[in-house]
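Justification of computing resources. Each target in the renewal requires a structure prediction run like the one illustrated here; the chain below, 293 residues long, is used simply to show the kind of job we budget for.
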Amino acid sequence: MVDTFLKYIQFEKRYSPKTVQSYQTDLHQFENYLNTEFSNTPVQDANYGLVRSWIVSLVEAKLDALSINRKIACLRSYYKFLMRQEIIARDPMSKIKILKTKKKLPHFVNENDTVKLLDNVMFPDGHDGVRDRLILELFYGTGMRLSELITLKENYVNYKDHTIRVLGKRNKERVIPFSAQLVSMIKDYVRVRNQEVEKSDHGYLLVTATGEPLYPMLVNRTVKKYMKLFTTVEKKSPHVLRHTYATHLLNKGAEINAVKDLLGHSSLAATQVYTHNSMEKLKKVFDQAHPKA
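Resulting C-alpha cells:
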C-alpha cells in the first residue's frame, strides 16, 4: 500500500517531487524499524505503541525535532489514507503529538544593504552578468521561490500589467505584481539573451550560457556570491531574499493577508513569522521615541 499512497500524493494531492521522495524515505525507514525490532510487522498493521516506540528511538538518536515532526506528518497522511480506503479500522496516529520546536526567525537583509546589493554591485558585461542581476531583482522584487524562478516561462511575464504568473507548490498558480523598473530589466535581459545565447525551444525566461534551463546549484551560487559583497547576514540564499521581500513589505505597512497571497502561502500561520521581525523594528522605534520607554 505504500506505493499506492505515494502515487496518491503525487498525482492526486500534487505534492512536490521533493515531498514525495521525503515521504517515501520516511515510510521505508519506519518499515525497516518494524522489520528489525518487531519481527517484520507490516507498516499498515502498526499500532500506537509501535509508532511511539519509533519516535522515541529517533529522539534518542538525537534527530532534530523538525525532522521527526516531518516523519510524524508523513505517517499521519499515510494512515488517514488507509482509513479512507477502509484498510484499517483505527488510526494509530490519533494520540501522537508533534514535538515542540524552537521558533527560528527568518533571516533577512536590512533595507540599506539591500539597496547596496541591487544598485552598487558591478555585474559583468554580457549575458551572464545581466542574468545574474535579474535573478537578484526577481527574488527581491517578487518574493518568488527558487523553484518558481527556475520554471518561470517567458510568456508568464505580462509587461503591460506589470505582473508575473508563477507555478508554486502543488502546481498552484498565482500572479505577482512587479515594478516598472523590473519591466525594463526583463526586456534588457531578453534582448541580450537573444543576441548572445542559442536558446533551446523550452520557453524558460532565464537560461544558462548554453541556453539550457537554470538549475538550483547555479542560482544558489549566484545569490551567495553577490550577497557576500554587501551583507553580513548569516545565511545567504534565494530564500533569504524572499524573506527580505516579505519583511520589507510588512515594515512598510503592507496588510498581512496581502503578503500571504503574494508569497503563495496556504495559511496565514506561515506568513505570521515575518511579523516578529516587524515587531522588533516597532519596539526599537518605541524605545527611541516614547518618553516613558
